[in-house]
Amino acid sequence: MIRTSVRCAAAVLALALSAGAFAAAPKFQMPFPCKQVWHGNTRENHSPKLAVDLSRANGEGDKVVAAAKGTVSKVRNLGNRSYGKYVVVDHDGGWSTLYAHLHSYSVKVGDRLAQGDALGTVGNTGNSEGAHLHHEQLLNGALQKIKFDGRTIHYYDGRGRYTDYKSANRCP
Ligand SMILES: [Zn+2]
Fold this sequence. Notes:
By secondary structure, the chain is mainly β. It contains one helix and 14 strands. It binds zinc ion (ZN).
């Protein structure tokens, strides 16, 4: 009995390892250049719930950068619905990041980006009221709690929540 269960556990472990389940998550940074401060908003009725909306005064047209190194996997324009103009970057270990409501994009599918490389500008496209960046971090396509610089961001406490975050993306 003991031998059997040990063998089963080893098989499960091998499967999990081959699926990349234990690959370390990339250390995501804010999708803005070093030292910029942006308001992060999370709320109960945000779609999807674990996404964050990032904004600052006169933010429209500001540069959006890659949260980690990766390869551009989607560059799409949904017109005046949903994400509007958006970009998805694939990272190591099944992780990806999404950047939505862009005013413009400056990358194409297959482009390799270093952490901090520009991919577009903040806009108000799609289902958006006021310029902001809608940002998601996903693992194998499933949204995860967002981390910047290794720390989980603050999430809504029932009413919706604003917190200021300072970018450490590609700081010298
Ligand atoms: Zn949003």
